[in-house]
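Marked as duplicate of an earlier ticket. Keeping the data here for the record.
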Amino acid sequence: MIGIWLERFCKVLRVLLAVLMGALAIPVAMQVLSRYTPLMPTYLWTEELATFIFIWIVMIGSIVAVWDRTHFDVRVLPDARSPLAKLLQDGFVLVLIVGFGVIFAWYGLEYAEFGSRQKSVMMRANKLITHVSVPIAGAMWALFGGYRLYEAIADFRRTKAPRDMKDTVQ
């Protein structure tokens, strides 16, 4: 049941990513037009806005990547064949994801608080807008990584159970 809700949440994040990618095209297009054509005056705030949007795209993209199991995982060893080795291999990566997520969430709160005391140069926007993305991303990495770890343990138990029953019958 929790997995269904997390998948739905991730679908919302994917839609948000698509919207932000479309929104990013606007200030970037304005920058290009103002630099290379006389059609538009140069607006300095467009660079800041593009940076703010890009930061959120990166953080939300990393959250989705943790859910899709396409981030933070580099295979140095070949995929394990036995259920226990697979659990250890996947579990190690997932524990690291959860650990780094907790670190980012914990220290990201201080980072966000630091950002709340600053304003951007051109737009005069509070930098909390971007700084808060760090603890949010960390919390989501920890949540998604923790759920994936739970799934890995459940898969191990499912694959291990028939062998245990077979051993006890003999």
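See parent ticket for discussion. DSSP finds five helices and no strands in the chain.
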